[in-house]
Amino acid sequence: MNKQIKNKSIFIDRDGVINKEVDHLNKITDLQLLPWVSEWLQKINKSDFLSIVITNQAAVAKWFLTEEYLQKIHKALIDMLDIQWAYVDDIFYCPHHIDWIVSKYAIDCNCRKPKIWMIKKAVEKYNIDLAQSFLIWDMTWDIQLWVNAWLKTILVKTGYAWKDWRYDCTPDFVCENFLDAVNLVLAYKQ
Q1: By three-state DSSP, how is residue 40 classified?
Q2: Cβ contacts of residue 64 below 8 Å, gap of 6+?
Q3: Hey, which of 10, 48, 54, 78 has its CA 20 to 30 A from 133?
Q4: What is the value of pTM for the model shown?
């Protein structure tokens, strides 16, 4: 019997972890990488982990930007990383929010964190073993997402630094920033 080898991933939030937290980032000119992110993504890129961004982007439902412009922001992010010899393997996003303006996006979807649809899509696409994977995030709904998926969570003290108070949950690890979180993952022994 030939078993297919599964990948492992570091799932990463976008705003407040990779780039500077800007409330409803809707301009490419406001997109700024946090210090040293490229160097530490390079470490992930050289490891046996995938780097996959999972992000809620309700700014689309709130009419701050279109989904097409959001994709331009993601392209700009990829280009910024590429210039610095780093990359993310994929970006999954949810443009929905049930309480907002744009009817096409004002729905109770299955993808908005802390629901796990985006994680499931990444698992299907990349054959990921969640038991060997990690989540690096800055908000409680992100930690709750990982609790919902039964995985290891790392809170970083950048961005919202867990001060959104939406869910009563505890991360597996707490790190000062993305750099410390990557070091923890790469040194972690099952």
Answers
A1: helix
A2: 24, 26
A3: 78
A4: 0.88
The values of phi and psi at residue 135, to 5°, are -125, 130
Active site residues: 13, 15
Domain of residue 139, CATH code: 3.40.50.1000
Q: Which domain holds residue 46?
A: 8-187
Report the Cα–Cα distance between both ends of the chain, in Å, rounded: 25
Distances (CA, A) of 122 to 12, 43, 160: 12, 21, 25
- Give the count of domains, the chain: 1
pLDDT digits (tens, 9 = 90+) for 15-41: 989 999 888 899 999 999 998 899 999
Residue with tokens 């972890």: 17
The torsion region of residue 9 among left (phi > 0), alpha (psi -120 to 50) and beta comes to: beta
- Residue 150's nearest CA partner among 123, 124, 177, 176 is 123
- Asked if residues 30 and 24 have their Cβ atoms less than 8 Å apart, the reply is no
